[in-house]
Amino acid sequence: MAETPLITVVVPTYNLGHYFDDSLASIQAQTYANYEVYLIDDASTDGTAKRVDAAASDERYHVIHFDTHRGVSVARNYGLDRAKGEFVTFVDGDDQLEPDFLSTIADGIAQGPADVITVGYNWGRWFESARAHGNGWQRVSKRAMFDAVRARGDAIGGYVWNKAFRVALLRENKIRYDESLALAEDLLFTTEAVVASDNFWFNPAVMYQKINRPGSTIHSATGEMRRTEQQVRRHMDELGRGL
C-alpha cells in the first residue's frame, strides 16, 4: 500500500446555503493532500449549486449537478461508483472536518490490514461517549464493531461520515446505498460493510464536527420514515446473527 493512499471524499449537497461554505472550507483546509472530492449537488434551488461551482478550479474536485432531486443515496452512489481512491469517506455537506481528518484516516490505514476506519466526532451530548474510549488507535473486533454500529449514540455509531471504507471491499461485495431509503440508509450501508469486513480500526480523536442544521433530514423525519428505520434495524439484526 502506498504511504499516502488516495482517499475519495463524496459530498452530496442540497439546499445547504451558507452551511456548505463552511463545510467546503474545512475540506480545502485539509493537511493531507492526496485526495479527490466529488461534490454532487442534488438540484438545489437556493444557490447552493453556485457555491459548489466555486470549488471547480481545483482539479481534485469533481463538480456534478443533478437536473432533478434524486436523494442523498443516489448522490453517494454516484460518487462511490467513480471513486479512484483506495478508501472512500462520505461527508455531509453541512458538516465540518478538522484539518487532520484525512491525515488521521491515512494514519489508520497504515496501522495494518484495514477495511473500515473510524474517527471520533462531536455532536452535542454524543461527544461525551467518545471520551470514554481513551486515546490512540484501537483495533476493534467484528462483533464489537457491529454492536457499536447498532447502538444509538455510540462513539463509533452507524454513521458513514466518521468513517472511511476500503473501496475494493465495497465493490467486491456490491455494497451500495439503498436508494429507496430516505432515512437510515447510512445504518444499512455501514452494517453491510461491517458484515463483509474483518479489519477495523478506531481512533476516538474528534475529527468530525456534526452540525445541527434546521431542516435536515434527521430533524424533519416523518412517522413513516421512522417506521422504515425500525424495519432497517430489524434487518440489521438479521445480518448480525452468527457474528
- Mean pLDDT, to the nearest integer, reads 91
The termini sit apart by 28 Å
Q: State the domain count.
A: 1
Number of helices: 10
Which percent range describes the beta-strand content?
Answer: 15-25%
CATH superfamily: Spore Coat Polysaccharide Biosynthesis Protein SpsA, Chain A
The CATH topology assignment is Spore Coat Polysaccharide Biosynthesis Protein SpsA, Chain A
Low-confidence stretches: none
Please give the radius of gyration in angstroms.
17 Å
For the secondary structure, the number of strands is: 9
Overall helicity: 25-40%
Which overall shape is indicated by the principal axes computed on the Cα atoms?
Answer: globular
Query: Which second-level CATH architecture applies?
Result: Alpha-Beta Complex
Q: What's the order of the H and E elements?
A: EHEHEHEEHEHEHEHHEHH
Largest sheet: 9 strands, mixed
Which structural class do you get from the secondary structure elements? alpha/beta
* CATH structural class: Alpha Beta
Written description of the protein model:
37% of the residues lie in helices and 20% in strands. By secondary structure, the chain is an alpha/beta fold. Strands 1, 2, 3, 4, 5, 6, 7, 8 and 9 form a nine-stranded mixed beta sheet that branches. The protein is globular and about 50 Å long. It starts with 6 loop residues before the first strand and ends with a helix. The mean pLDDT is 91.
Concise summary:
With 243 residues, the chain is α/β, with parallel strands linked by helices. The protein has 10 helices and 9 strands. Helix content is 37%, strand content 20%.
